Amino acid sequence: MKRPNILLIMTDQMRGDCMGSAGHPDVKTPYLDTLASRGVSFDNAYSACPSCIAARAALHTGMSQEHHRRTGYEDGIPWEYEHTLAGELSNAGYYTQCVGKMHVHPLRNYLGFHNVELHDGYLHSARYTSVSWQESQKQADDYFHWLRQQAGVDADVTDTGLECNSWVARPWIYDEKYHPTNWVTDRSIDFLRRKDPTKPFFLMASYLRPHPPFDAPSYYFDMYKHKCLTPPALGDWESDELLKSQGRVFDSKCGPIDPELIREAQTGYYACITHLDHQIGRLIQALVEYELYDNTLILFCADHGEELCDHHFFRKSLPYEGSTRIPMILSGNEQILPGIKQGSVCHSVVELRDVMPTLLDFAHAEIPDSVDGKSMLPLTADTSRKIRTTLHGEHSYGPLSNHWIASPYDKFIWFTETGTEQYFRTEEDPHELHNAILNPAYQERIFTLRSQLIDELRNRPEGFSDGTHLIKGRPYPPYLRD
Q: Which residue in the list 18, 49, 52, 98 is annotated as catalytic?
């Protein structure tokens, strides 16, 4: 048998609960459900630093945020890592190709891939003319170059009138074949056509959606626009102060104040997911037609989630499940994953740092000592196993900066500026509706998780911990510098 291939499908800003196989009441994802039915799903998969750059650093390096040093969102910091996922697989004899989003610096940094066909979406820092240190995205991005050739010299993703962090939604105004989601699939399928048949491949199909703009083709909006959608989660602990002050700002962190616009945001988000799902279906069917499907491991994940107006919040970077929990599926047959329990769910806490060691383990490649993550492969044959019991997550986010400890059944949150603490029993309260921080029944458990966070932060440069207490109000930059 030829060495098996690896397909990593990554989406941007997709919640872990937004699949039919995950029990979502509204979203339709037949092809992702198919991957789940022939694989193992991880229902406690997290993004420990849930925004684009930091999350991708974890995936590409296998490191925790303390070691890859990206604890928030900051553009323009060079990606200088000795060991990367693509680099190690290249060294192991795989031909490595990425299509779609990288979000690294500089933009054309290949991170060990043999080739990259790039589309990073709308990157503010690479489009603003005043930023002298950054190359122009209009020149460096392959999709923008292609779109100008195909649809006209002035065509741009901004022509829909939408912004890349906005909750405003409307259908794509060009032919569907020009949509960036279709482009990633088209270029990925073309790679399958022209790949070297004598070498195994590692293909990363890195999709931009369902990250805003919510601009799926009209067909997908029509699927949801008359559907009764489940309203956002609103708990008994939250404040609408931010919503009242920013709820009419098109790119606010809280989403819209108008209930109709909330529903339109949900419609646009779900439309992008189903459009994405159908394009993943095209890619799966291409694997079948090229007779590669049965000899290809497929790993599906996202970089982080989307609050989608839960708790009066929008976007990511927050410690709540909508932002932190991501989909994670390992899909393959018995031939390439001996003993796999197809269609099963594993409850172990896993994270993006685990992708690199998992795929290197599958390729029988050496896992560098710099890697903090752990291989998920053993969990496909024994879903009762756990590779960790808790996870430390965080994000530098101004007044909303946060640290958290999550387990398969609960979560402790600490906001660094105010010192506010929260505790949720996520197993029985998955939407975090009830803050149990003062509940006498859980004080011993809260003390344990708080103590773990104190220990996690003991040697951090910000000074959040003195080894005994958490210290609020410390400066918290998005990149750890010596």
A: 52
Burial of 441 (0-12, 13-18, 19+ CB in 10 A): exposed
Does a structural domain hold residue 471? no
Distances (CA, A) of 422 to 337, 353, 387, 435, 478: 40, 26, 26, 6, 23
pLDDT band at 199 (very low <50, low <70, confident <90, very high): very high
Is a pLDDT exceeding 60 seen at residue 250?
A: yes
Residue among 318, 317, 322 nearest 269 (CA): 322
Q: What is the mean pLDDT of residues 325-345?
A: 97
Tokens found for residue 264 = 């339109």
Q: Is position 470 within any domain? A: no
Q: Which domain holds residue 198?
A: 5-379
Residue 419 lies in a domain: no
| Listed residue (18, 33, 24) closest to 325, CA to CA | 18
What is the sign of the dihedral through the CA atoms of 396, 162, 214 and 102?
negative
Decide if 347 is catalytic: no
pLDDT at position 158: 84
Q: Is residue 471 helix, strand or coil?
A: coil
Tell whether 368 is covered by a domain.
Answer: yes
| R_g (Cα) of the chain, nearest Å | 21
Cα distance between residue 359 and residue 362, in whole Å? 5
Of 94-108, 116-130, 321-335, 419-433, minimum mean pLDDT range? 116-130
**346: domain CATH number?**
3.40.720.10
Q: Please provide the distance, in angstroms rounded to a whole number, between the alpha carbons at the two ends of the chain.
A: 49
* Mean pLDDT, all residues of the chain: 95
Q: What is the per-residue pLDDT for 168?
A: 97
Residues whose CB is less than 8 angstroms from the CB of residue 9 and which lie 6 or more positions away in sequence, other chains included: 205, 207, 280, 283, 298, 299, 300, 301
Q: How far is residue 191's CA from residue 188's CA, in Å, rounded to a whole number?
A: 5
Instruction: Tell me what pLDDT residue 130 has.
Output: 61
Could you report the per-residue pLDDT of 135-153, keeping only the tens digit for each?
Answer: 788 889 999 999 988 887 6
Report the domain count for the chain.
Answer: 1
447: buried, middle or exposed (CB in 10 Å: 19+, 13-18, 0-12)? exposed
- Work out the number of other CB atoms within 10 angstroms of the CB of residue 144: 22
Q: Tens of pLDDT along 177-188?
A: 999 999 999 999
d(CA 217, CA 173): 8
State yes or no: is 119 an active-site residue: no
What pLDDT, on a 0 to 100 scale, did the predictor assign at position 40? Answer: 98
Q: Locate all alpha helices (DSSP H) within 69-217, ordered by sequence.
A: 85-91, 124-127, 137-140, 142-151, 180-194
The alpha helices in 247-354, defined as continuous H runs, are 259-289, 321-324
**Which among 60, 68, 83, 103 is annotated as catalytic?**
103
CB atoms within 10 A of CB 295: 17
CA distance 312 to 254: 5
